[in-house]
């Protein structure tokens, strides 16, 4: 079975990767996907200047995510790959589902922050969008009560 894990180094994603590690006996390949949300475009269409430091910080964060994955998967015995995909904020779930199609994924695993109300409206819910868009089963790992 090929499994895809959406991973962003958040507490809920760490819980999801720990769950995915339990799938080792049935997992042929675990594709761990980090989608770099990139710079979100302004709705006004106005030209904006984004300091180079913003892009550098995003790359540094992506490197930290990859280091975390390597550390968590090091002794797992699971065949895995780390994929860093670039996207704008509104494309994160689409990118995750797109990878599932390209890689012939049998199951997508993702964490959730259980956003509600205004937070969900402003930030959106990647896990909810993955469920809506996916043609393969999606397993959503709930956060700890403390997250």
Question: Can you describe what's shown?
Answer:
With about 150 residues, the chain is α/β, with parallel strands linked by helices. Helix content is about 40%, strand content about 20%. The chain has a five-stranded parallel β-sheet with strand order 3-2-1-4-5, with helices on both faces.
Compose a concise summary of this entry:
The chain has one domain (2-40, 52-141): HUPs (Rossmann fold, 3-Layer(aba) Sandwich), CATH 3.40.50. The chain is 40% helix and 20% strand. It has helices spanning 11-21, 52-73, 92-102, 117-123, 126-133, and strands at 2-6, 29-36, 80-86, 107-111, 138-141.
The total count of strands amounts to 5
Distance between the termini: 30 Å
- Gyration radius (Cα, Å) is 16 Å
Order of helices and strands: EHEHEHEHHE
Q: Strand order, main sheet: write it out.
A: 3-2-1-4-5
Described by the principal axes of the CA atoms, the overall outline is globular
Measured by DSSP, the beta-strand proportion falls in 15-25%
Rounded average pLDDT: 83
CATH class descriptor: Alpha Beta
The secondary-structure class comes to alpha/beta
Task: Let me know the CATH homologous superfamily.
Answer: HUPs
- How many separate structural domains? 1
Q: Could you say what the CATH architecture is?
A: 3-Layer(aba) Sandwich
**Which ranges are low-confidence, i.e. pLDDT below 50, for 5 or more consecutive residues?**
40-44, 118-123
Task: List the total number of helices.
Answer: 5
* Helix fraction by DSSP (H/I, runs of at least 4): 40-55%
The CATH topology name reads Rossmann fold
For the sheet with most strands, the description reads: 5 strands, parallel
